[in-house]
Specification:
Layout (H helix, E strand, L loop, with lengths): L3 H9 L5 E5 L5 H4 L7 H17 L2 E7 L2 E6 L3 H5 L9 E2 L17 E2 L36 H21 L10 E4 L6 H4 L7 E7 L6 H6 L3 E5 L12 E7 L1 H5 L5 H11 E12 H13 L2 E6 L8 E8 L5 H4 L1
Parallel strand pairs: 4-5, 6-7, 6-9, 7-8, 9-10
Antiparallel strand pairs: 1-3, 2-3, 10-12, 11-12
Main location: membrane
Protein name: Methyltransferase
Keywords: Glycoprotein, Methyltransferase, Signal-anchor, Transferase, Transmembrane
Amino acid sequence: SGGIYLLEVHRILRPGGFWVLSGPPINYENRYIGWNTTVAEQKANYEKLEQLLTKMCFKVYNKKNDIAVWQKSSDESCYKQLDAPDNYPTKCDDGTEPDSAWYTPLRPCVVVPNLNHKKLSLQSVPKWPERLHEAPDRIVDVKGSHVSDFNRDDSKWKNRVKHYKTLLSALGTDKIRNVMDMNTRYGGFAASLIDDPLWVMNVVSSYAPNTLPVVYDRGLIGTYHDWCEAFSTYPRTYDLLHLDGLFTSESHRCEMKYVLLEMDRILRPNGYALMRESSYFVDGIAAIAKGLRWDCHVEDTEDVNNREKILICQKKLWYSQQQQR
């Protein structure tokens, strides 16, 4: 398809980042017989692959046996060559939103890195773990965000998580491993848990400002999602679901009960839901949670803010009478 899958690899890869290929046509000289093809055909495939990657500003980093590694260039001059007439692949026009991936078709063009972000490349981004608490360059791309806002958010979540651990003793222990922050902003909840034996899937609402680049620049992982739709994951996967004001901000788009039913589907039996919501929604959420056979209790926030409450629920393991028979 004209290399469109490689163009998507290029789009999502950080400048200076690596792409590893294992399998055809790598090591075709020794493997072509098992692939039911000819050495000439596989040689042609490899040359086409190498030619396209070079045009897309990839360089061979290393190759050994069945594995080849390419590195995406951070060199500005390489991307300027894409302006040449009749060049393929072409450079995406300025009207193409590089971060748009929600119901967006693959682009048959090269998304050129924003050279104004000096710390975007893998070589320039702060090393781990310093990058976790340093405001990324791309925070200025988020509407209404700035460095001081990031720093306040980072400090706020350190205090909140400290309080959460007093309310939910299992948090921070080996009892909770798979965690989801259902509507994160900058990934502050996950960053504050980085020293604990768990990982956090950071979910950015597709109806909220696009802060996912900030999450990734911090060295965290995340995805977009519309919580009026099902989340693409196996049922009974997560040990803990956390949300902060999700119903307050998005309950006008779909009913709370459907979101809670989806939470119940992906939450492991005996797993927890930690919900920080406005006091207006807490009673309604608790009533629906009771129907799901969750055990819940309401707690104060760390600053005893009456406008917000914390609802902690545990999903119980139960069986229908039909299953028991």
